Amino acid sequence: MIGTRLGPYEITAQIGEGGMGLVYKAKDFHLGREVALKVLPEAFTADPERVARFEREAKMLASLNHPNIAQIYGLEQGDGTRRALVMELVEGPTLADRLASGALPLDESLSIARQIAEALEEAHERGIVHRDLKPQNIKASIEGRVKVLDFGLAKAMDPSASAPGTPGAGAPLSNSPTLMNSPTLTAVHGTQLGVILGTAAYMSPEQARGRAVDRRADIWAFGVVLWEMLVGRRLFEGETVSDTLAAVLTREADLGALPAETPPAVVELVRRCLVRDPRARLQWIGEARLTLASAPD
After folding, report:
1. N or C end of the chain: smaller count of CB under 10 Å?
2. Reported confidence tier of residue 1, pLDDT bands at 50, 70, 90
3. 95-294 has which fold?
4. Chain segment 208-236, per-residue pLDDT in tens
5. Assigned CATH for 5-88
6. Sign of the dihedral defined by the CA atoms of residues 79, 82, 83, 89, in that order
7. pLDDT tens, 236-261?
8. Longest dimension (CA), the chain
């Protein structure tokens, strides 16, 4: 598709792929800016009901406007058979890229975590849950700027709506759209297994059981990401998806692995985020933001 047009967008490079299709860099000739295009799979666009629900979700997601959230500009139908989600193009490394070489300094970890919390707080106040938060969809520049990608796309791609009381709410995990079709921007040469393992490691226990989720699933994932930034390795790992999910469901977070200089309030924040029972977990991400804002560097 390189060099082809989709509406006013000329595709210039492929920059990633995920469960919801290929991701391209493109030039918007109307506004003179570069954007990211996620071209939806044909199997998806062939289902009118699914497309209509996706369009409703996308309109809601496009209302998010926050400096730490990569913005969704809209949908482009192109030639009538191809559809693409038009998004802000965010250059630079992901948090996963940064963590490949180990833990981040304490002050940088807390700064990144605070910005992630601010993004989540903005979304949660609008009733939007990320559902797929992980280092691969957090852009974290060397200069310290953070952008969270793909808010709400796991739900938007869900063929069964998965709201409480709907048929998809307790669907088997093998059918989970978050696990099997993670919409996250991934490495062009990444394997499907790598994508699935990378998603499973950050799923909340209720997600791992195939249950309906709310904002508290994001809070769990936030705690997992914060622990990983401070320690420099994944909190939950396994050779297979089943092993990884078993760890999520049974392994206690090793708070003793956190650096000795971690402020006690931050240690307690991580603990509260990683309570398995969502009713006993930290309930509002704004509390995390306040804790991080007042924590000594």
Report:
1. C
2. confident
3. Transferase(Phosphotransferase); domain 1 (1.10.510)
4. 998 888 999 999 999 999 999 999 999 99
5. 3.30.200.20
6. negative
7. 998 888 999 999 999 999 999 999 99
8. 57
The pLDDT value given to residue 223: 98
Cα three-residue angle 282-100-217, rounded to 5 degrees = 20
* Both structure tokens of 12: 């210039």
CA 8 centroid distance within chain: 28
Q: What is the pTM of this model?
A: 0.86
Question: Out of 28, 107, 132, 243, which one is annotated catalytic?
Answer: 132
The first and second tokens of residue 23, run together, are: 């991701």
What are the extents of the domains in the chain?
A: 5-88, 95-294
Contacting residues for 220 by C-beta, under 8 A, at least 6 apart: 204, 205, 273, 274, 278, 281
Residue type at position 280: A
**189 CA to centre of own chain:** 19
Per-residue pLDDT reduced to its tens digit, 164-180: 433 334 444 544 444 44
Question: Is 132 part of the annotated catalytic residue set?
Answer: yes
Inter-CA distances, 199 with 39, 225, 252, 296, Å: 21, 12, 19, 31
